């Protein structure tokens, strides 16, 4: 069994409230530029309902899932993920009983090497999430959360819904 992986061209059965925003990479002989956050992107930014609070970058080695046996979850914050280098799989699981996509699992391939994988994903509040680097070299993750970091808002939930080992196998890792 293989998981189904989503991207800009395949958004079948996407979890309710998830937003995918295509990012454009401009390249010339001197390098490349990608706009990663703008206040006129009203689908991913709104000063009142989806504000900008901070930005951070993390790097992760190939084959590593952040918190392998735990999901991340936020009560108050939405995350906005971008993978500017390498390739990651971002996993979302919907535990919200009042959601039309209750118990739905989505796996998104993200990275700058393929145009259909260069996007920002907005992760709704209360949706479980995590990511793994599946490129041969380390992967980078940028996040533009809607709240300043608070340990009180960030939770960890046991992961019973996804096998990161299966994801490794799907991408020929370990």
From TrEMBL:
Pfam families, alphabetized: dTDP_sugar_isom (PF00908)
**Which residues does this entry assign to the site Participates in a stacking interaction with the thymidine ring of dTDP-4-oxo-6-deoxyglucose?**
149
Please give the coiled-coil regions recorded for this protein.
none
Q: Which GO terms describe its cellular component?
A: cytosol
Gene Ontology molecular function: any one = dTDP-4-dehydrorhamnose 3,5-epimerase activity
Which InterPro entries would you find in this protein's record? Answer: RmlC-like, RmlC-like_jellyroll, RmlC_Cupin_sf
Say which domain of life the source belongs to: Bacteria
GO biological process, any:
polysaccharide biosynthetic process
Q: What is this protein called?
A: dTDP-4-dehydrorhamnose 3,5-epimerase
To which species is this protein native? Candidatus Curtissbacteria bacterium RIFCSPHIGHO2_01_FULL_41_11
